[in-house]
Design brief:
two-stranded antiparallel ribbon; alpha+beta; Small Protein B, Chain: A; 4 helices; 21% helix
Length: 138
């Protein structure tokens, strides 16, 4: 089926973090969530990833409620599972244990296929950039 491009960006990521290894993962979504993403009503500006119980989740990703969702709509800021294979999760976990690394985001939220409940998310291993004010004080 044809794929449609989604332009949901985190423009601050390149300014606030030094970006290292890039990964692409699917996001496990509900039906109303993928419909809202296709309508362009999502934001990853305040989102971040965490590793819990051998799985990676995206937290604080904002996806607006679908207007035609009725009573079965989704929560706006729930944890969503990233779909990666075990070797990638182990590699990411090992990198995150290194001093100062955090899981940041590349500016785009990939593509969403016409059918199905997943969208692609590009994210990176990153290290926060110290501002000049922090460097002088600290």
């Amino acid at each position: 089926m044809a794929e449609q491009k989604i332009h949901i960006k985190n423009k601050k990521a390149g300014f606030e973090y030094t970006l290292f290894d890039k990964y692409t993962a699917g996001i496990q979504l509900l039906g109303t969530e993928i419909k809202s993403i296709r309508a362009g009503k999502a934001s990853i500006v305040e989102a971040y990833c965490v590793v819990e119980n051998g799985e990676i989740f995206i937290r604080n990703m904002h996806i607006d409620e679908y207007t035609n969702g009725g009573f079965v709509n989704h929560e706006v800021r729930r944890d969503r599972k990233l779909l990666l294979n075990r070797t990638e999760i182990n590699k990411i976990s090992k990198k995150l244990k290194a001093k100062g690394y955090t899981l940041g985001f590349v500016p785009t939220l990939g593509r969403a296929p016409k059918a199905g409940r997943t969208a692609l998310l590009a994210f990176v291993i990153a290290m926060p950039i110290m501002s000049s004010a922090t460097a002088i004080i600290g």
